[in-house]
Amino acid sequence: MGQITKYLSHDEICAVYTCLEGHIHVRFRSLDITMEPEEFSQLTSVLFDAIKILRKANKPNNEEINLEDLEVLPKV
């Protein structure tokens, strides 16, 4: 593992940082995963999709609908 050059983001139990070799590291507790920038991009894309799905699943179903915004076509 290379030396930390810059923290991109960090919290109490997780961090994302770069090393002198140009890798991106994702640390979670005692786990430290080293990856190339392209791999990191793919990981963040997958995590972002998962977050969207989780938010959608936890969203209440009682949203109000504005009837004026609906497009209604006449039935012939």
Give structural attributes:
four-stranded antiparallel beta sheet, 29% helix, 76 residues
What report would you give on this structure?
- This protein is of the alpha+beta class and 76 residues long.
- The protein is 29% helix and 30% strand.
- It has one helix and four strands; from the N terminus they run E-E-E-E-H.
- It has a four-stranded antiparallel β-sheet.
- A hairpin with a 4-residue loop joins strand 2 (14-19) and strand 3 (24-28).
- The radius of gyration is 21 Å and the shape is elongated.
- The chain starts with a strand and ends in an 18-residue tail after the last helix.
- The model has no long low-confidence stretch (mean pLDDT 85).
In terms of topology, how is this protein built?
Layout: E1 4-10, E2 14-19, E3 24-28, E4 31-35, H1 37-58
Antiparallel strand pairs: 1-2, 2-3, 3-4
Strand content: 25-35%
Please count the beta strands (DSSP E, at least 2 residues each): 4
Any idea what the shape is? elongated
Number of helices, counting only DSSP H or I runs of 4 residues or more:
1
Straight-line N-to-C gap: 70 Å
Structural Rg: 21 Å
Would you tell me the overall average pLDDT?
Answer: 85
**Strand arrangement, largest sheet?**
1-2-3-4
Helix content: 25-40%
Oligomeric state, counting identical vs distinct chains: single chain
Low-confidence stretches: none
Q: Please provide the ordered H/E string of secondary-structure elements.
A: EEEEH
Query: Structural class of the secondary elements?
Result: alpha+beta
Q: What is the makeup of the main sheet?
A: 4 strands, antiparallel
